Hints:
Helix content is 50%, strand content 17%. The chain has 180 residues and is an alpha+beta fold. It has 2 domains: 3-61; 87-179, Alpha-Beta Complex (H-NOX domain). It has a 4-stranded antiparallel beta sheet with strand order 1-2-4-3. The model has no long low-confidence stretch (mean pLDDT 95). It binds protoporphyrin IX containing FE. Protoporphyrin IX containing FE (HEM) binds at residues 1-2, 4-5, 78, 82, 85, 96, 99, 103-104, 107, 114-117, 135, 137, 139, 142-143, 146-147, 150.
Amino acid sequence: xxxxxxxxxxxxxxxxxxxxxxxxxxxxxxxxxxxxxxxxxxxxxxxxxxxxxxxxxxxxxxxxxxxxxxxxxxxxxxxxxxxxxxxxxxxxxxxxxxxxxxxxxxxxxxxxxxxxxxxxxxxxxxxxxxxxxxxxxxxxxxxxxxxxxxxxxxxxxxxxxxxxxxxxxxxxxxxxxxxx
Length: 180
Ligand code: HEM
C-alpha cells in the first residue's frame, strides 16, 4: 500500500484524536516498517489493517466507522494532492464513473506498484449510479468513505445503499447511489 495512504491516516489520527494516539498505536503494533512512513514509500497492507485495529481498540470506535471516516478524509487529501484530476469534472457521479479508467489508471502511471481496487459501473444516469467494488484487500468501508467524500466535495447529497454479492474471497460490494 502506498505511503501516502499511511501518512494521511496518521494525519487524520493526529487531528481527530491526538499526537499521543499516533505514538500509542505505533507502539501497540509490531510494524516491520517501524511506523516511519513516507508518502512515496510502499508498505505492507497488513500494517494499515493492524493500525486501524489498534486505533479501534484504544478509541472504542468500530473498525468500519474508522475506515469510513478515513475514506472521507482521504478524499479531501486527494483533492488537495492531485488537483489536475478534478479540473474536468463538475459532477460527483461522472467523476466516480471515471475512477477505474481515468483516475486510478493515472495513479497507476504515477505509482506502478500501487495496489488498486476495481470498479465496474452497472448503471449511470443524472440521478442514479450503481458501481461494484472488487478488491482482494476488501476495503469496502474505505471505499464508502471515499464515495461519500466525493459526493460532499461536489456539493451534493445522496442516498447510499450497499449490498454484498458473491461469497468468500470472490465477494464484491455493490454501491447504489441516488441524489437527494
Ligand atoms: C483523485 C482521486 C483519487 C486518487 C488520486 C486515488 C488514488 C489512490 C491511491 C494512491 C491509492 C493507494 C494504492 C496503494 O495503496 O497501492 C488508492 C487506493 C484506493 N482507492 Fe483511490 N484514489 C482516488 C479516488 C478514489 C475514489 C473516489 C474511490 C472510491 C470510489 C477510491 C477507492 C479506492 C480504494 C477503496 C482504495 C484502497 C485499495 C483497495 O481497495 O484495494 N479512490 N487510491
